[in-house]
From TrEMBL:
It is found in: Nucleus. This is RNA helicase. Transmembrane segments: none annotated. It comes from the Eukaryota.
Length: 759
């Protein structure tokens, strides 16, 4: 049931999109989305009862503005945190009661696993305890987070608790952003940042202790760190490691480090009543909105937390909730309690993200509409109601198709329990599961699949290779990735010229790993040096490292599309990005210019910052900047040299097929190449994503002979090979199964004994 429903998508989301298109009076609403969504809808006072005949709450939680309903005595739940000082709040956390025992265990052991409910104070308090105990005398304290948002928001919170400026004693580092300084002693960072630090400093000398936080999330980088830190622990007797997890599977972590102690922080959670849906719910977005309205109208005080899968659903839900609140207000003479509707997802600007931690004004109820981000990495106090749709969106690599698929999956039972737990932090709460008990028992997996099992490992392979780990199949993974994934990633690196025929790092690969970029992007940069257009390529790579800079507010699609089209370079989305950046530069990097042209100011600033950081790395490698001026054909050729593995050929209007595996891949409607009457025979693309169909993201037209010249392992102009295409270029291999090809390459160039040991 759950799998079927997830594939259908929400009718409410589609309906709201349509409505927003039609309803021009709402134009400003989305323009001001940030501030407006934070606004409180409703009127001053709360009431006991509202008029009969206006609202009805159905058995399954459906709200209807017709029958009888009650407003309970609301609200002011957030009072209990408001009045407390920061130090009182700190002492109130469950972890505080075991502070001394904890420090004792840590001092007696090199590695400790700490288990504690989300919100018990692990992330914000442990670092401070260690600091107070003196662990920063011979090094600093590092704490890793799988999510950037968490690293930033927690560092901010801890700097407040310690009454120091963020970036001073307490700082954070995420990719392309370093908010630490010479006096930083507590450093929060993403697991990816620490992983890259091991390249420069394999023993992590500057740290006296590392906290691997949120280990239960099993992010790719955390999993690789496990293997690497195990070695550091063995080499450095003065180094300590703490692994924290919010779930009870501590044994696995403990066993991995040879049976280290597991410390449980006593929970102080309240009972959470679980309510299941009686039947599978067809449209979980609609159901979530109804449930939230029901709670707001008829439920006791307490804030609401809704789990959805992504930005689109979250925006639609916020919109629907605000609409229904307005409906309610206008359909009754009675005062309606206020509802503060707050979205949170990773792409939301940081200042808006911070709003979820603010207290709602007296009498108002907060309703936080979140992605999985609120499952464990962020703790929000005052939640008494959780509405769990039962789904999560994940990017999963499909090695057969060679593409990432962004898909909605049912969550695991462990996640469902985590989500429910969010309701029991401040008092007994309720969790509404918008799926059946049967689905929970029989359709959900016990725990989430670790990311390492289902993602592209290109970066990891490159990194481990440069850490001189020869045999990847022997690396100490807690749960080894499928061999297919490793082989596939090695194959890709071989294609890019990062690895040689026996799987050793080539010079190009050694340079590629210096950049915090995906392998193909790093190669693109380095090819820019070779083909003498580094300046241009550097800009393109930076632009590809930020979310789309094109701003497309709801209700102003036509206007913003027209603005975007003015930047189009007809043969290339990559060049379109270059064009945008260069025009912005020509206009003195002005913010108002961005606004006038429907461009995201913040995104462009970020791209500029990334550009300067990449430039610094190029300088350390003594690679000089070269310019190609107005000859942008050479830029396209450079793109081709790093992306020939993502080549596609024309099949029909707007329809392409991947040259190697014949998988269909379509131009996205936002592409510069779409619908302009110019459809080149061959293109390369940045990535392919499977959503409703297989779309190519960021496409550039290429000459067929470039493919033959730059990707000789795939393409040739001659006639000595199997598959003939209509347009004069041939493929060397009819590749359906990359692993087969990998083996065939190996047969030609490597002996089977090396095959066994190296691959
Ligand atoms: O890591 P764990 O889930 O055990 O808890 P935590 O993140 O250290 O949170 C402890 C407390 O700090 C909670 O009550 C949070 O509400 C609060 N906190 C906050 O107010 N602002 C943040 N940015 C992070 C945490
Ligand atoms: Mg935490």
């Amino acid at each position: 049931d759950m799998a079927l429903i997830s594939r259908k998508g929400s009718a409410l989301v589609r309906e709201i999109h349509e409505k927003q298109k039609r309803d021009k009076s709402r134009q400003r609403f989305w323009e001001l989305a940030g501030s407006k969504l934070g606004d409180i809808l409703g009127v001053e006072k709360s009431v006991d009862e509202i008029d009969a005949d206006t609202v009805v709450v159905g058995e399954d939680g459906a709200v209807d503005f017709k029958g009888k309903a009650r407003f309970s005595q609301h609200l002011a739940v957030s009072d209990f945190t408001k009045s407390k000082t920061i130090s009182q709040q700190r002492q109130n956390l469950p972890i505080f009661s075991v502070r001394d025992e904890l420090l004792q265990v840590v001092s007696e052991n090199q590695v400790v696993v700490i288990i504690g409910e989300t919100g018990s104070g692990k992330t914000t308090q442990l670092t401070q305890y260690l600091y107070e105990y003196g662990y920063t005398v011979n090094g600093i304290i590092g704490c890793t987070q799988p999510r950037r948002v968490a690293a930033m928001s927690v560092a901010k919170r801890v700097s407040e608790e310690m009454e120091t400026e963020l970036g001073d004693k307490v700082g954070y580092a995420i990719r392309f952003e370093d908010a630490t300084g010479p006096s930083t002693v507590i450093k929060y960072m993403t697991d990816g940042v620490l992983l890259r630090e091991t390249l420069k400093d394999p023993d992590l000398e500057k740290y006296s202790i590392i906290l691997m936080d949120e280990a239960h999330e099993r992010s790719l980088d955390t999993d690789v760190l496990f293997g690497i830190l195990k070695k550091v622990v063995a080499r450095r007797r003065d180094f300590k490691l703490i692994v924290t997890s919010a779930t009870l599977n501590g044994e696995k972590f403990s066993n991995f480090f040879g049976g280290v102690p597991i410390f449980h922080i006593p929970g102080r959670t309240f009972r959470v009543q679980i309510c299941y849906s009686k039947t599978p719910c067809e449209d979980y977005v609609e159901a979530a909105v109804k449930q939230a309205m029901t709670i707001h109208i008829a439920g006791a005080p307490g804030d609401i937390l809704i789990f959805l899968t992504g930005q689109d659903e979250i925006e639609a839900t916020c919109y629907a909730l605000s609409e229904r609140m307005e409906q309610l207000i206008s359909s009754t003479k009675q005062p309606v309690p206020k509802l503060l509707i707050l979205p949170i997802y990773s792409q939301l600007p940081a200042d808006l993200q911070a709003k979820i931690f603010q207290n709602a004004e007296d009498g108002a109820r907060k309703c936080i509409v979140a992605t999985n981000i609120a499952e464990t990495s962020l703790t929000i106090d005052g939640i008494f109601y959780v509405i769990d749709t039962g789904y999560v969106k994940m990017k999963v690599y499909n090695p057969r198709m060679g593409m990432d698929a962004l898909q909605v999956f049912p969550i695991s039972r462990a996640s469902a329990d985590q989500r429910a737990g969010r309701a029991g932090r401040t008092g007994p709460g309720t969790c509404y599961r918008l799926y059946t008990e049967n689905a929970y028992e029989n359709e959900m997996l016990q725990s989430p699949v670790p990311e390492i099992q289902q993602t592209n490992l290109g970066n990891v392979v490159l990194l481990l290779k440069s850490l001189k780990i020869q045999n990847l199949l022997d690396f100490d993974f807690m749960d080894p990735p499928p061999q297919d994934n490793i082989l596939n990633s090695m194959y890709q690196l071989w294609l890019l010229g990062a690895l040689n025929d026996v799987g050793d790092l080539m010079d190009l690969g050694r340079k590629m790993v210096k950049f915090p970029l995906d392998p193909a992007l790093a190669k693109l940069l380095l090819m820019g040096e070779k083909l003498e257009c580094l300046n241009e390529v550097l800009t393109i790579v930076s632009m590809l490292s930020v979310p789309s800079v094109f701003f497309r507010p709801k209700d102003r699609e036509a206007e913003s599309d027209a603005a975007r089209e003015k930047f189009f370079v007809p043969e290339s989305d990559h060049l379109t990005l270059l064009n945008v950046y260069q025009q912005w530069k020509a206009n003195e990097y002005r913010g108002d210019w961005c606004n006038d042209h429907f461009l995201q100011v913040k995104g462009l600033y970020k791209a500029r910052e990334i550009r300067s950081q990449l430039l610094d790395i190029l300088k350390t490698l003594k690679i000089p900047l070269t310019y190609c001026g107005s000859d942008w054909d050479v830029v396209r050729k450079t793109i081709c040299s790093a992306y020939f593995h993502n080549a596609a050929m024309l099949k029909g209007i707007g329809e392409y097929v991947n040259c190697r595996n014949r998988m269909p891949c379509n131009l996205h409607p936002t592409s510069a190449l779409y619908g302009l009457g110019y459809t080149p025979d061959y293109v390369v693309y940045h990535e392919a994503i499977l959503t409703t169909k297989e779309y190519m993201q960021c496409v550039t037209a290429v000459e067929p002979h470039w493919l033959a010249e730059l990707g000789p392992m795939f393409f040739s102009m001659g006639a000595n090979v199997d598959v003939h295409t209509e347009r004069g270029i041939e493929e060397r291999h009819g590749i359906d199964d990359k692993v087969d090809v990998l083996k065939s390459i190996l047969k030609i160039s490597v002996s089977s004994s090396i095959l066994a040991t190296t691959w």
